[in-house]
Amino acid sequence: MSLDSVISYLQSYGHWIILIVLFCGIVGIPAPEESFMFLIGVLVAKGHFAFGTSLLYAFFGTFAGMLVSYWIGRKLGLPFIERYGKYIKITPDRWKVVEGRFHRHAQTTVLFGFYLPGLRQLAPYIAGISRYSFYRYVLLSLIGSALWTTTFVSIGYFFGDQIKLKYLPWIAAAALLLFLLTVFRKRFANRI
């Protein structure tokens, strides 16, 4: 999808696209959350959208995704893991390890897991399945959603005047490449 078509959708459907894309990204439907929020910030800087409204929709999309993912994890629960976990190599023993680690680091995971792709999608499900305190989860998700969305929209906003829109796909590709190189470097460093 080209940048022009993304901008066209945003102009046609407004802020609802922001909410939907971020909601989908959090519940696990592939979406480029960080680069999308960066783009939103750039578009705000270029005068296409209002900062506060865009940030609000980004926040609500993210927070709604966190709540729905937690609820799905809570409703499907451990019986789902026991029945279908074998297909993705989650044995009962592995689940106990994951659950134990999650509960030891739950506050950090929910609060700052947004910044790590994959973890932000898995953490809400793990919290729901392991019956982590709903009220604590909601509070941490509120704070984490606000920090994460404000960070990326603001970065796009503050650098938006310095970047031409035609270069955004290249910047996103470079960021993805940097992320992949970091992941591979860590994996291979651990094997040596």
UniProtKB/TrEMBL annotation:
InterPro entries: DedA_domain (IPR051311), VTT_dom (IPR032816). The keyword Membrane applies. It comes from the Bacteria. The keyword Chloroplast does not apply. GO terms for cellular component: plasma membrane. The chain crosses the membrane at residues 12-29, 49-73, 137-159, 165-184. This is DedA family protein. The lineage of its organism: Bacteria, Bacillati, Bacillota, Bacilli, Bacillales.
